[in-house]
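Collaboration report, partner site 2.

Our partner group contributed sequences for two proteins of shared interest, and the home lab folded both. The records are reproduced in the order in which they were received, starting with the first partner submission.
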Amino acid sequence: MRRVPLALLLSVLALAAGASAAGAELAFTPCREPDQQGFECATLEVPLDRGGTVPGTLRLRVERLIQPVQPAGVLINVEGGPGGSATWRAQQSRRLFAPLRDRYQLVLVDPRGIGLSEPELRCSPDAGRCARQLGDAARFYTTADNVADLEAVREALGAPRLFLYGTSYGTFVVNQYARTHPDRTERIVMDSPVPLDGIDPLGVETVHAIGPMLASLCAGGACDAITRHPTADTAALVRRLQRAPARTRVVDPSGRPRRAALTASDVYEVLLAGDENAALRAFYPGAVRAALAGDPAPLARLETLGVERYGRRQVNPSIWAPTNCTDMRLPWPREAPPRRRRADLIAAIERVPAARIYPMTRALLGHSASAWPCLDWPATSLDRAITAAAPPPVPALVLSGLLDLRTPPADARDVAAAFPHGQLMAVPNRAHGVLRTDVACGQQALEAFVADRPVGNPCADSPPLLAIQPRPPRSRAGLAPAAGVPGRRGRTVAAVRATVADAVAVAQVSAPDGGAVAAGGLRAGSVRGTRDGATGAVRLTLRDLAHVPGVRVRGRVRADAAGVTATLRVRARGASGRLTLAADGSVRGRLGGRAVYGGAQR
């Protein structure tokens, strides 16, 4: 997409003060971008400043699914962030909302400054510098502006009312629209909702949710082979790492090792990363126990695997400060100078009871508080541009994953209770973005909701995306020999099986939605391949992969519903050779110059 400096584009597109998009018409034509096939595209011009003080316009990208018969209703999918692009997820949205196609026209809108809307907002990640770069335009990327833009889209579409589906920050836009325009809202779904009055500037509720999340993760004895006290383990590790970071190595996807220092903040970041990739949580209890035993490598690897790798086309980070630093419930007066703001923020953190943020600490809360980046944001002198109107009596469905930290289940319960006709569906073993990770039963809930039937909870029995993973072994000597294969060769077979099982599990974390797999090994080497997002089947190539120290594995692995098969070369002291793994878990080959045969795994 062509990028144009904001000030220049605004001057070129300048309109008279008070210009309005009301009455605009959308001229749809087939989208030209390859990833937008099956959609029609249009552009809607809206004012930068609806108050008319600052001239200029913005061009919103609007897309609608091409359907044989245009349904009567309109469904708009509102992405999260702030900064998420709806058009980037066009094909995913097409699949997710397919059961509603006969009743609703699916429409996607990239918010101002994001994705295929123009101009793309670009500024420094430093909030104060960003505000200086944007100048007067910095004030017009708020939730209220997004709500007004959605209303302009509704008018341009000629739709009497909208069905709005929001995820994460998108739920805040959705509930603000419903509270601002209740008569123009048919119904809303809030998937992983933020509180009705916006995000928590201190992040207390997210930290408070760690204990219940770990209890849910380990329910039914799922973690008993590793630990019965995952929250206490986390607290002990955080306090140890606050005294001194743990030194270790991590391996990048190319197999190159690098030094790393594991800190208390990294523990928190790993927990948050599990919101977007719930399979990552399966490794967490074992990695924490390993770190407590002096082996920080497994947890450091999770910190690397959990990094969210988004491009600007998917999520625009420049939007964060202009939106949140204006909308957020900041713990200081908006006219306060930076020194006063900092003092007020620290004082607010110190007032939080220690029990409220267990297993974390105030020091860690201070590091992660959402309000910190806003200390230098000058536009905080504005009043919050959001409505305080009561939630209206429109049909409202709230979806919540019980493993979600960013938008905790407690907040979801409050949001559902605030709407007179609110329903809550709480889903076990899922985190952020319920519909995207539990598609089939999520679609059942949507169908019941739009038919005005009680939704219930078709996702109540959702199984874990990945079983809790064992604590990684620190040596081959500590492993029990494989059945039927005694001594060193048997322990080598056990190490190879652990290596293959870990590679298959890591593939789910590396490619949760399917596609290319690329990850470094725990101790050395790398794994590459593909994962089928629909079936979970993987095809992997192991390149000198070491999961157990001293045992390196090369070869090909296949895993699907029938089991795991592999043809491998093994390098291990006193037990090098070749092995073949069968789908029933049996193994055969030669190690250390001697034949190996073992029965199916017990």
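Second partner submission, folded after the first:
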Amino acid sequence: MKQEDLIKHIDGPQLTVVPLGGQSELGQVLWLISYKGEIIIVDAGAAYPTRESPGVDLLLPNTTFLEANQDRIKALLLTSGNEEYLGAVPYLVKHVTVPKIMAPKFVCCLLEQTKEDLPADHPLKDIPIENIETKQTYSIGPFKVEWIKVNDSAAQVSALLISAGHNEIVYMTSFKLDQTPTDNEMADIARLAKLGEKGITLLIGSSAGIEKPGYSESESSLYDKLHSRISKARGRVIVLMSGTNTYRLQTLIDIAKTCSRKILLLGDSLIRSAVASTMIGNLVYEPELELSLDDLDKTADKNILVVAAGKEGNPMSALAELGEGIYRDLSTKSSDTIIYSSEIQPGRLRQMAMLLDQFLLADIKIYWGEEQGVHVPRTASQEELKLILSLTKPDYFIPAFGEGRHIMHHAQMATECGMTAESIFPLQNGQMLTIEHGDAAIAGRVEYQAVLVNREHGERITTFTVNERRAMSSEGLITISLIIDSEGKLVSGPQFDCSAASFRYSLQWKEACTEMTKNIIEAISNKISDAKKSKDEMDESAIRALVRDTAFKTLRAQLQTKPVLQIIIQRLIAKK
């Protein structure tokens, strides 16, 4: 369906919901919700790439459809300080006009700090950021919005109630129902139950924890387990965790005090979160517990607790840099104890195993994950997800914020809870769901492919580039050089240079070069002959395509490989 036709679903009286990221993937959450021709954006998150994406540092939601409709946008609503829901805000507002941002105070504090690190002309510096309060209703164009307190790893995470005419949407964001949160701020289950009694049109529910049975463990349950590991450590303790996990940070600060350790925070996102949560009164500590980098070498190892996060708050990147000895401001020693207090990201299990081997061979103790008692999940488990479904009693349901299997398992759970298959929409990124006169249907799909970003160069990386880099790392790079005259005839070459490939020293490679030389010479000769008959010109692009195609076919036949090919053609210009 053409974009012009899809825009009609925004112009009309119907309610329209579109995920532009976060479906069948963890992170880069962004939702577009429109009613009566006006749009609100909900969340704008980033995601971390897998190791199969060389040269990519961040994945961000696609903003193409929003850019085409930016005059309709009324506000950006944020629900969480986690990078998966917040990390793409600077990118979003650079490409899309956003009149204002509305968020809980903790998120507002994070954004204000982010502004300080941006260039003077960055649009985020000029956008009003409104601090909201839960249990209050805000009018935004044709919408009425209420933030509802839930629990998560970051402070002040909130679900949303979005009212559009007769439609009521509950957007659950990432959550869990912690019965003993470290800040004693309970999720507002009573409000969700009351909404269910009134009637909910659509529930957008978090699916990431669907594979874990029962209830998620409370954050406060970690205290004794972490205290035991830290108090028994013979030297420094280095804890790696998400940069926005403010509840875990409070637990570690409390433990540092009881174990007579000073605490050193490393990582920009972790420090921003600590400052923001202190400003709102969510984080309580005594300044004398702080340790600076300058005093690190002057303090006894047994009195040091380091809490670190990597780029964009990613603990796995910090662990990898520690293992490789390239982490800024910190290197490991054999007396250290490392605690990886976070989830292992999908696609990173092999990397984790290699890092564990490195640390253990260096005589460094390391504890990781839920199995070793140093982490609890931040997402709701099966019984909590069932409870939300039974409390809200939605007419329609979108399982969200998870990988494909999470979303489909959550959809299956909804049927087990009494919903019909026709009322459940496991949307993919870009799919447009419309609700009009109580009827819901998928209307089409807008552009949705993720934006791939290299942090150092600030570039948008195409999928083609990633595939090419992946091929280079596994199949190698072959450069084919040749010289042709003004008529396209081969004067010299082809010459072959092979790098980053396992076969380059083999007898088969030499045989393949001989075969490629013969085939390329023959192909160019035939092409020239055909061009003379049809009186066509032999341009360099045609020769380059011919050489590439011929070389690929030969390599596939001779070596069963498909490396990246670089064709270099020099052309002799005849003197007049």
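Feedback sent to the partner group on the second submission included the following. The radius of gyration is 28 Å. Residues 462-469 have pLDDT under 50 and may be disordered.
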